[in-house]
């Protein structure tokens, strides 16, 4: 019997488990000790692996904490690429953002207060978070260019990406701010949702008909 191509191999499962163990150990230590005071060697010891194993899975120390960094970068671009026939880029991003608020998506800033405080207290983590958002905006511009058949990425797609990514970034910042203040996730989602809706409504006149997927 041949193995289903979609079924992870034992090696892949072990690799995934090791990565998760490292990430969990790192998060615990970063929250307990502070990000800047925790070393890679301490993370390796806590996870029961070699230091090289940690760096093989996470070349950057900051990404030990932001273990969803790849998903954070590609989310906006993937949403545009997967938009439905007849749906604009703006409509797809609005739908995804509001659904993310409803499910308290970590990619929109939802976390525990200890996690948020660790980021707030570390300039390195704050800088990495800004970098991830910038990378996400660049990826979004490329997805928009692909959607409107514009190569290389031009001025219009860069401006559209900046405007659309700004809403997402503002939502993230507000969710994060309220998390730091100790608000419950359900209350945060309820408070932030109307602001997100208004922000997308204001962009409708400029971008409502931009990058609409052909039926």
From TrEMBL:
GO terms for molecular function: DNA-binding transcription factor activity; transcription cis-regulatory region binding. Transmembrane segments: none annotated. Residues 39-58 bind DNA. Keywords: DNA-binding, Transcription, Transcription regulation. It comes from the Bacteria. Residues 16-76 form the HTH tetR-type domain. InterPro entries: Homeodomain-like_sf (IPR009057), HTH-type_TetR-like_transc_reg (IPR050109), HTH_TetR (IPR001647). This is TetR/AcrR family transcriptional regulator. It comes from Kitasatospora xanthocidica.
């Amino acid at each position: 019997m041949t193995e289903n191509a979609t079924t992870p191999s034992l090696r892949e499962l072990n690799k995934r488990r090791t990565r998760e163990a490292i990430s969990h150990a790192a998060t615990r230590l970063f929250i307990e000790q502070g990000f800047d005071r925790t070393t890679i060697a301490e993370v390796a010891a806590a996870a029961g692996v070699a230091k090289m194993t940690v760096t093989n899975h996470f070349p950057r120390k900051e990404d030990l904490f932001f273990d969803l960094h790849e998903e954070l970068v590609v989310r906006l671009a993937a949403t545009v690429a997967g938009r439905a026939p007849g749906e604009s880029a703006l409509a797809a991003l609005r739908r995804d953002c509001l659904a993310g608020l409803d499910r308290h998506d970590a990619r929109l800033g939802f976390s525990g207060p200890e996690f948020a405080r660790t980021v707030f207290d570390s300039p390195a983590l704050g800088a990495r978070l800004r970098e991830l958002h910038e990378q996400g905006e660049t990826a979004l511009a490329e997805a928009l260019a692909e959607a409107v058949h514009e190569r290389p990425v031009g001025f219009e797609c860069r401006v559209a990406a900046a405007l659309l990514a700004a809403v997402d970034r503002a939502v993230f910042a507000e969710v994060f701010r309220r998390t730091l203040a100790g608000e419950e996730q359900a209350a945060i989602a309820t408070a932030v949702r109307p602001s997100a809706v208004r922000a997308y409504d204001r962009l409708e006149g400029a971008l409502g008909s931009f990058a609409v997927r052909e039926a």
